[in-house]
C-alpha cells in the first residue's frame, strides 16, 4: 500500500454543504473542519478542484478559516482531471499519491478515466477520511507537521525567482542556501524511515527501511548513516536526504542514497553524493554503489552516471557501480556545505 500525499477536495456538497454559484448559503460541517486540520497535522497536503468562480470560492474559504490549508487551489471551470494534472506539476508528487473526493459520480469517473492511478472517493464517505490507512501514517515527524508550511515557503521562493532579474545561478546564490550533513541520530530516525517510503525519484534502490532497522544501523561500526538538512533565507526545507554506507576495510558501498525531489531545482540534489566521493577519496577507500532500477528512479541513475560511477556488475535490475575517484568535484558555489562528522 502506497501512502497518500495529497487529498484534493471538491467544494459544493463536499467540503461544504450547498452550491455556491446557485446562491446557497453554504456551511461547513464541524467534522469537516476537524478532518482538514487532522490531515494537515499528519503531513498530508490538501488542495481544491472545484468548478466555481475563483474569487467567490476563495472568499468563502477565507471566511471559514480554511484557505490557508489548501495549496494551489484549482477553482475554475475546467475539467477536474486537468486540475489534477496542474496540481501534480506544481506539487511534484506522483499521481498515485493523490486522493480525489467529490460528490458527483461523473466527476470521479472523469478523473479515474484520465488518471487511473488517482484514488477517487465519494463525498458521502468524507467523514471517514481520517480512518483510511493511506492517510494514517504510523509516525508523524516534525518535518511532516511542517510540510504545508515548507510548501508555502517554496511558493515564496518561486515568486522571488519569477521576479528576479538575472541568471538562474545568481538567483540560487541569493537564496543563501546551507546544507548541513551529519551522522544520523536517534531524533532523525522517524524522518529517515519516512524518506525511504516517500522518496521515489532520487532514490537509488527503492528499498524501505523501518525505524528498528535504522536504529540498529546507527550503532553498527560497519555502517555510516548520514542525514542532510537544507535551509535558506526563507526557512528550512527539513531533512531532505540520507545515505547509508556499508564499510568493509577500505571498501565502501553506498547501499542507499536518496534526496528529496524538492532539492533538484535548487541545484543541490547531487551534493550528498559529492560529499561521499570526497570522503572516500580523502580516506583512500574504494567507493562502490548499489542501484536498483525502478519505474521512478531514472533520475538517480543519471546522477550516478554523471558523477563518474561506472557499472562493474549487473543482475537484472540490480547494478553495482564503482567510482575510480579520479574526478573529485567541488561543491556548487551557490550552497554552503557544513559537515559535522
Automatic annotation (TrEMBL):
Domain N-acetyltransferase as annotated: residue spans: 179-332
SUPFAM superfamilies, from UniProt? Acyl-CoA N-acyltransferases (Nat), HAD-like
**Name the record gives this protein:** HAD phosphatase, family IIIC domain protein
Protein origin, superkingdom: Bacteria
- What InterPro entries would the database entry show? Acyl_CoA_acyltransferase (IPR016181), FkbH_domain (IPR010037), GNAT_dom (IPR000182), HAD-like_sf (IPR036412), HAD_sf (IPR023214), HAD_SF_ppase_IIIC (IPR010033)
Q: A GO molecular function for this record? A: acyltransferase activity, transferring groups other than amino-acyl groups
Amino acid at each position: 500500500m502506497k501512502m497518500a500525499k495529497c487529498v484534493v477536495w471538491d467544494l459544493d456538497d463536499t467540503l461544504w454543504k450547498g452550491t455556491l454559484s446557485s446562491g446557497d448559503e453554504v456551511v461547513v460541517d464541524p467534522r469537516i473542519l476537524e478532518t482538514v486540520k487532522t490531515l494537515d497535522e499528519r503531513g498530508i497536503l490538501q488542495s481544491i478542484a472545484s468548478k466555481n468562480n475563483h474569487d467567490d470560492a476563495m472568499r468563502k474559504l477565507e471566511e471559514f478559516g480554511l484557505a490557508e490549508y489548501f495549496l494551489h487551489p484549482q477553482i475554475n471551470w475546467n475539467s477536474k482531471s486537468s486540475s489534477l494534472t496542474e496540481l501534480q506539476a506544481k506539487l511534484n508528487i506522483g499521481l498515485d499519491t493523490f486522493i480525489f473526493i467529490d460528490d458527483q459520480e461523473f466527476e470521479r469517473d472523469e478523473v479515474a478515466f484520465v488518471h487511473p492511478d488517482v484514488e477517487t472517493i465519494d463525498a458521502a464517505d468524507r467523514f471517514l477520511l481520517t480512518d483510511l490507512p493511506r492517510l494514517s501514517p504510523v509516525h508523524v515527524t516534525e518535518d511532516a507537521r511542517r510540510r504545508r508550511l515548507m510548501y508555502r515557503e517554496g511558493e515564496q521562493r518561486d515568486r522571488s525567482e519569477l521576479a528576479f532579474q538575472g541568471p538562474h545561478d545568481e538567483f540560487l546564490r541569493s537564496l543563501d542556501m546551507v546544507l548541513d550533513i551529519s551522522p544520523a541520530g536517534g531524533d532523525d530516525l522517524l524522518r529517515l524511515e519516512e524518506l525511504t517510503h516517500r522518496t521515489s525519484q532520487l532514490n537509488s534502490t527503492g528499498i524501505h527501511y523501518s525505524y528498528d532497522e535504522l536504529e540498529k544501523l546507527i550503532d553498527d561500526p560497519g555502517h555510516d548513516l548520514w542525514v542532510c538538512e537544507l535551509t535558506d533565507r526563507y526557512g528550512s526545507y527539513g531533512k531532505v536526504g540520507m545515505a547509508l554506507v556499508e564499510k568493509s576495510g577500505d571498501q565502501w558501498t553506498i547501499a542507499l542514497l536518496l534526496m528529496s525531489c524538492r532539492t533538484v531545482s535548487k541545484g543541490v540534489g547531487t551534493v550528498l553524493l559529492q560529499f561521499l566521493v570526497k570522503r572516500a577519496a580523502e580516506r583512500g577507500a574504494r567507493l562502490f554503489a548499489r542501484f536498483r532500477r525502478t519505474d521512478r528512479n531514472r533520475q538517480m541513475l543519471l546522477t550516478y552516471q554523471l558523477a563518474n560511477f561506472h557499472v562493474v556488475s549487473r543482475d537484472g535490475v540490480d547494478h553495482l557501480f564503482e567510482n575510480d575517484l579520479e574526478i573529485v568535484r567541488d561543491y556548487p558555489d551557490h550552497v554552503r556545505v557544513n559537515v559535522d562528522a
